[in-house]
């Protein structure tokens, strides 16, 4: 990996190369996860923007499969933690181990020290274990036995949770939710997509999922770091920047929302807009790039009013009204 100005300078050639890599990754992921194109684009947006993702959906839609496919196409390190009620913070971060030969304590790093981390069913672990992720997600480091240990780049946490199984779960605190750049919802595929998926899966000898082994490795860890650097330099007009900030600020006084999104949402909207521009091979960010990632950026950072909740209205419906009414700059 090179940190030289030549390697990170935003040129048309660099932008096109990074865009082609991202699009090749999208093609591979669509082979494994059928009928979830929007979800795949959202996950790629977070990867390019250097953010973390909370994946929510009922069992069997392919949340874990998507992360396994991403790990297969990505040449970096991958680790998986199955969150359970008895999982301890040290199981996530690591701990000190006494070495009989040297008669000294040695730090044994936990699965957190990786490039791509799957935190499966994150809401099944108690708050103290969930909190073990906080420092790592925000600071990109872990403190073990008083020593701050940096986590290598890139570092991306993809956490999954089930929205309907409330028994035996510990809801994520707002401080931790805010550290996820995007909250992505996986919905049921439509009829044709489900037909295609069943046709493909039943051709395989695997029981109920597509095999990720045939997928190609299309980029390495250093490619992702370079892609993130290039994305952060994609030109952004002042009016588009203002639009992103206005969207986040509008949630704070919007009827029907009791809690609005903080400044971290404005930052995520801008980073997400730049990532989406790179993904489609554009040389600048448009308002549609910002709007395209707004639902995933905002839905876990706001709270709907109790009376609307009783009426059966969902956060996404309120946010869609907001997106329709906050004026975007003309392109």
UniProtKB/TrEMBL annotation:
SUPFAM superfamilies membership: P-loop containing nucleoside triphosphate hydrolases
Domain of life per record: Bacteria
GO terms for MF: ATP binding; ATP hydrolysis activity
InterPro entries reported for this sequence: AAA+_ATPase, ATPase_AAA-3, CbbQ/NirQ/NorQ/GpvN, ChlI/MoxR_AAA_lid, P-loop_NTPase
Domain AAA+ ATPase span(s) in chain numbering: 49-190
Keywords in alphabetical order: ATP-binding, Nucleotide-binding
Protein family: Belongs to the MoxR family.
Protein's UniProt name: MoxR family ATPase
Organism from which the protein derives: Pseudomonas synxantha
UniProt lineage: Bacteria, Pseudomonadati, Pseudomonadota, Gammaproteobacteria, Pseudomonadales
């Amino acid at each position: 990996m090179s940190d030289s100005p030549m390697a990170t300078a935003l040129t048309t050639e660099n932008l096109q190369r990074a865009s082609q890599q991202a699009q090749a990754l999208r093609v591979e992921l669509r082979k494994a996860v059928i009928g979830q194109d929007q979800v795949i684009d959202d996950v790629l947006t977070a990867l390019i923007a250097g953010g973390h993702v909370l994946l929510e959906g009922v069992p069997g839609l392919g949340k874990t499969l998507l992360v396994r496919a991403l790990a297969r196409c990505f040449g970096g390190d991958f680790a998986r933690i199955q969150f359970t009620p008895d999982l301890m913070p040290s199981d996530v971060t690591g701990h000190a181990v006494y070495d009989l030969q040297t008669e000294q304590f040695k730090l044994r790093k936990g699965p957190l020290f990786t490039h791509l981390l799957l935190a499966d069913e994150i809401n099944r672990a108690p708050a103290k274990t969930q909190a073990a992720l906080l420092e790592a997600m925000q600071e990109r480091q872990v403190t073990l036995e008083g020593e701050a240990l940096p986590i290598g780049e890139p570092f991306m946490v993809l956490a999954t949770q089930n929205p309907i199984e409330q028994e035996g779960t510990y809801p994520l605190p707002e401080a931790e939710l805010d550290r996820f750049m995007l909250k992505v919802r996986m919905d049921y595929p439509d009829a044709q997509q489900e037909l295609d998926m069943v046709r493909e899966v039943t051709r395989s000898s695997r029981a109920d999922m597509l095999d990720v082994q045939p997928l190609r490795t299309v980029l390495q860890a250093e490619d992702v770091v370079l892609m993130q650097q290039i994305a952060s330099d994609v030109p952004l007009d002042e009016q588009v920047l203002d639009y992103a900030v206005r969207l986040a600020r509008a949630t704070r006084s919007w009827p029907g929302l009791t809690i609005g999104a903080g400044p971290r949402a404005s930052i995520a909207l801008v980073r997400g807009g730049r990532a989406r521009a790179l993904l489609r091979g554009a040389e600048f960010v448009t308002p549609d790039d910002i709007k395209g990632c707004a639902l995933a950026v905002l839905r876990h950072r706001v709270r709907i009013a109790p009376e609307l909740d009783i009426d059966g209205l969902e956060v996404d419906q309120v946010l869609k009204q907001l997106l329709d009414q906050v004026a975007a700059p003309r392109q």
